[in-house]
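Hi R.,

Here's the chain you asked about this morning:
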Amino acid sequence: MSMRIRTGAVTALAVTALTAGAVLAAPAATASPKAPAFLSASQLPPHPTSSWTAGPVTEGFPAELDLCVHTEGVPSYDYRHRTFRTDLDTGAVQLTVVADTAAHAKALAEHYDDLIRTCADRIEESSPDTTAEGRDYGTLPVEEGARVRGLHTETSWGATDIALLSVGRDNRTVTVVQWAQMGDFTDAPVAAFKKTTTRAVNKLY
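And here is the predicted structure, written out as tokens:
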């Protein structure tokens, strides 16, 4: 997602990020006996002119997801993430979080998917100079399931960005994956991103 969108939309969204409130109140997660594994650079949708570079696995919630996904109103779980980049204006990020129970993980995955589903409406409500459209690309039959969605934003001054986002779950662990670049829905590698999401969920353990 280009900085042109994020500086306008993200700041405004910080005030109206969640309408559901604290729907997932629960104790903090206990330590997992094995940390979830992350995608490698080679498992992202291939870029036509540039290779992917993977950053280190880092503690905390990634700022790259702030446009749609937030931690407000959810338990204080331990978040870990890994960012990816190309030499051009294309980036990606994967988040993992281990809940204390499978039921809480299911609720968390549904909550994150709902935030992504409603993201376009929240962007337009909070940033009048931006139009946004979300698309549902369906579910994937991997572990406890995953869903892929798309988001296109365009500003009044012509900045246009496309993102693909997915939420998947394996038992107590939830993962969110985002791919983003300048462009529109015609530039989105949906089939390749579905493969990336399937790999992300399968690779957790």
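One quick note: Helices lie at 3-13, 102-117, 119-126, 190-203.

Cheers,
M.
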